[in-house]
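Q: I'm a student working through a structural biology exercise. My instructor gave each of us a protein and asked us to get a predicted structure, then write a short paragraph describing it. Mine is FAD-dependent thymidylate synthase. I'm not confident about reading structure output yet, so if you can add a plain explanation after the tokens, that would really help. Here is the sequence I was given:
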Amino acid sequence: MILHINVLDKGYVRLVNHMGSDLTVVNAARVSYAKQSEALTEKDIRLIRFLAREGHTSPFRHAVLQLEIYAPLMVARQWWKYIVGSAHYEGTGDSLEAWNESSRRYITEEPAFYIPSAGQWRGAPENSKQGSGGLVAWELGEKYTRELMEYTQLGIQKYEAALADGICAEQARLFLAAYGLYVRWYWTASLQSVAHFLNQRLEHDAQQEIQDYAKAILNIVKTLFPVATEELLTRQQA
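A: Happy to help. First, here is the predicted structure for FAD-dependent thymidylate synthase. I'll explain a few features afterward.
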């Protein structure tokens, strides 16, 4: 079973725990008729397909994942929108969401930053105000990799100097370059919520960095819930 997948230069997604399987979805649906399956059958697979196709989503909320994620702040804040909206999207009332994040109010571990390599910088899109276009020339990318490294190192030096002078950690952190700063959090979510996240963040127009995390989560989720994951993603992308 896939437990840990590295993402970007320093990030990762780690499976902490999970509850249920494809059979959980089936039995959550069949309880209405006081029935239960002991092993997943072709009939059960057809039921999962029917539930996904017809939008009967509550059985998918009985399967739950708990993940530890280490990602740049710019990714975390995009991700956070799914927690804020989870109780309301599509009228599902899905509240099986939890998010607990490390805080530099309390910890002073060595800061880590996402630094794109020279070959990873993207240009602005031609016909949109957001997103990105193709890769820029290597020479331009090399310039901005170098400048970003210098910028973040200056921030680290000032952050450490402030701590050494007795400034509290919650204010000293203001010197750190925020968007590239890696943060760590636990995300606990129902299978339906995870599928909703994947359907949006696996799309080609999603930011590349969060796409990379979505692909890692997809590898974990389809290992745990192969049938339900395929049906939820297929039906919602249709």
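A: Here are two points you could use in your paragraph. The helical segments are 22-30, 42-54, 73-85, 138-164, 169-172, 191-201, 208-224, 226-237. The chain has two domains: 4-106+183-237, 115-179. It's a good idea to check both against the output above yourself.
Q: Great, thank you!
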